[in-house]
Amino acid sequence: MPDYGLFYKEWRQNKALLVIAILVSILGNPLSIFNMYLTYQGCVTGKENWVGPCVFSVDYLNGTFISFFWIWGVVLAVSQLGIERSKGLFDFTLSLPYTRGQIFNAKFLTGGMVIVIPQFIGYVLSVLLILFLKPEQAVYFHNYSLGMIIVSMLAYSLVMAGGALTGNIFAQLLVSFTVAISPFLLISLPAINLEILFGGSIEFIYGPVPKWAQYLIPITFVDSKWVENSPQYLVIPAIMTFIFYIIGYISFVKLSNERNGYFFLWKRLNRPVQIIVIIIGIMGFGYFGFSASESFTGYVIGMAAGAVIGFFISYFAIYKKTKHL
């Protein structure tokens, strides 16, 4: 368990952001319900201007204000790792009389508590508000409110892991986003290119895919439609949250801070990642060229352009050191 002093440091260093995140997380859910109630009251008082009957229902199917709560996970992780490292404050943090494991756990627990506890308080207040206002129905309210806590923690742990592997804010966000869409980059994009090269259709793309498989792509949870499926699918982001925590913890403990400002803290990742980026550029631009021209010539031109663009983007992003803020 991290020392109290580390929690106090995290609080003092990010006090304004933490306070805002706590208040928004507590009030967001009740205000969403109250806004639905005001909409209903507007229908009752001006019924002649509305189409259909006035019904007061709490409907979370199409998302509400809390749909954006996952953003707090991203912002907190960037503040705790990316911004602190970019400001040159990380050397001071690591010089404190604590182990790297204690420092990472203090950061993670601070962020986790700011995400989980206020959202749960907001959920309880929303339940009380529903009991008081008595809507005719509450659609997906419980699933979405509690599920967003897990989704927010998934976003937080993913970006924390990205920050533990990288040396600046841009790298942290880029790596996190890439991992969030990695199943598409590693599976679907190569399959599409194989279809272009060999013709016909790839059964892997068009064949039956288990419904739960889409939730192996973290970015899927940005769309609120996940709430329509079984709550049991939330086990997947919960497991991914734990996996990303382990990756972040090991990276933070094992990697040095000497490459502060570079893309990766572990420089052995530079060349393999650069090659992967170039390959993805070749496949992505090749597919774009084929779609635009509907010809193999356009596909080849797109591949060539992708190789050049992928090389320059990867070279300047990975090997150019970022200055402190």
From TrEMBL:
Family annotation (InterPro entries): ABC-5_transporter, ABC_transptr_acetoin_YtrC/YtrD
Coiled-coil parts of chain: none
Transmembrane feature ranges: 16-40, 60-83, 104-132, 144-166, 173-192, 233-252, 273-290, 296-318
Keywords from the named record: Membrane, Transmembrane, Transmembrane helix
Keyword set includes Manganese: no
Listed name of the protein: ABC transporter permease YtrD
